[in-house]
Specification:
Protein name: Adenine DNA glycosylase
Order of helices and strands: HHHHHHHHHHHHEEEEEHHEEEEH
Function: Adenine glycosylase active on G-A mispairs. MutY also corrects error-prone DNA synthesis past GO lesions which are due to the oxidatively damaged form of guanine: 7,8-dihydro-8-oxoguanine (8-oxo-dGTP).
Number of domains: 2
Largest sheet: 5 strands, mixed
Strand content: 5-15%
CATH architecture of the largest domain: Orthogonal Bundle
Pfam family, one: NUDIX_4
Number of helices: 15
Distance between the termini: 64 Å
Family: Belongs to the Nth/MutY family.
Number of strands: 9
CATH class of the largest domain: Mainly Alpha
Radius of gyration: 24 Å
CATH topology of the largest domain: Endonuclease III, domain 1
EC number: 3.2.2.31
Structural class: alpha+beta
CATH superfamily of the largest domain: Hypothetical protein, domain 2
Length: about 350
């Protein structure tokens, strides 16, 4: 272990750390909950969600007993909804198969759904004082710069190399504090753009600073091409101000969330091309008369990790009642993607349909 590295890091952390609710406890439920929420999510965005979850579900028993739709609704807006589904599944698993108590070591924690190397290391070190090093985006950045490592962080070789180095550096007497310190240092000081290297606690030994490579590290292999998809949501409005939504049951983005009937096209649709689409005709032929209006002139771009969605909402007035229709004012009761939530908020407010 490089004792000097850990000593500097922990000293900086104790003077500069943010006061966050999950740092005041070693309860594995609270730590696990915070780590799942903070995957792919900044602390500022994740903190209100953590507080909502810990208030609504004070214990893992409460979370396990909740309906999945309640969990998804509470998660709405955080994205990567598989995290919420895995969160719920793991809660039920821990209650049923572990008597409500989390496994107390890194190896067994890895058996839980949605818990990978990083989360297992965080829980094991913070809650059980096991010397299991965390490696996330912040850690990659800190280690690659200080030690001048140019191995791609999104390669198998890179992941093994950085994990081994992180494990070598961890303080076995204070593994939880060490792990939180290196994550905090990466998040708040050794930041992606324009870090204050001249005042850094490691500037006398940082390879990237000495060789002027800070901006180029860590190194990542280029991702594949981003897939473009064209979504057309059909917002039916009946004579009694009701609409229709459906649940996405297939695997893929937004599984188990609700949406308006969807027609996906190969390119951006116009009214003419949409009304000639077979899927559109199947959804609208059941009505005697439809009046269609394009709601947003330019598609709304919604960026996901591997795909970009170009979305148009189409308002379709029908002069009859909808079977299984719901009041527009009740859509907020359902878990929907943030893209649809934003539309609902704007559309209902503009058209005074909330009441």
């Amino acid at each position: 272990m490089d004792t000097e590295f850990s000593k500097r890091l922990i000293s900086w952390y104790l003077q500069n750390k943010r006061e966050l609710p999950w740092r005041t406890t070693t309860n594995p439920y609270a730590v696990w909950l915070s780590e799942i929420i903070l995957q792919q999510t900044r602390v500022a965005q994740g903190l209100p969600y953590y507080q909502k979850f810990i208030t609504t579900f004070p214990s893992i028993h409460d979370l396990a007993a909740a309906p999945q739709e309640q969990v998804l609704k509470l998660w709405q807006g955080l994205g990567y909804y598989s995290r919420a589904r895995n969160l719920h599944e793991t809660a039920k698993n821990v209650v049923v198969n572990y008597n409500g108590k989390f496994p107390d070591n890194y190896k067994e924690l890895l058996n839980l759904k949605g818990v990978g190397d990083y989360t297992a290391s965080a829980i094991a070190s913070i809650c059980y004082n096991e010397a299991a090093a965390v490696v996330d985006g912040n850690v990659y950045r800190v280690l690659s710069r200080i030690f001048g490592i140019e191995t791609p962080i999104n390669s198998t070789k890179g992941q093994k190399e950085f994990k081994a180095l992180a494990q070598q550096l961890i303080n076995p007497q204070k593994p939880g504090t060490h792990n939180q310190a290196i994550m905090e240092f990466g998040a708040r000081y050794c930041v992606p753009q324009n870090p204050d290297c001249s005042n850094c606690i490691f500037n006398d030994s940082c390879e990237a600073f000495g060789k002027r490579k800070v901006a180029s590290l860590p190194f990542k292999l280029k991702k594949g091409a981003i897939k473009k998809r064209y979504f057309n949501y059909l917002v039916f409005i009946s004579e009694d101000n009701k609409t229709h939504i459906e649940q996405r049951t297939k695997k893929g983005i937004w599984q188990q969330l609700y949406q308006f009937p969807l027609v996906e096209t190969k390119n951006q649709a116009t009214i003419k091309t949409l009304m000639e689409d077979n899927d559109f005709l199947k959804l609208t032929n059941q009505f005697s008369e439809v009046d269609i209006t394009q709601y947003n002139n330019a598609p709304i771009l919604h960026k996901l990790s591997h795909q970009h969605l170009y979305t148009t909402f189409w308002i379709i007035f029908i002069s009859e009642k909808l079977q299984n229709g719901i009041a527009i004012s009740t859509i907020d009761d359902y878990a929907v993607p943030v893209l649809i939530s934003n539309f609902i908020s704007e559309f209902t407010t503009f058209n005074n349909l909330k009441n």
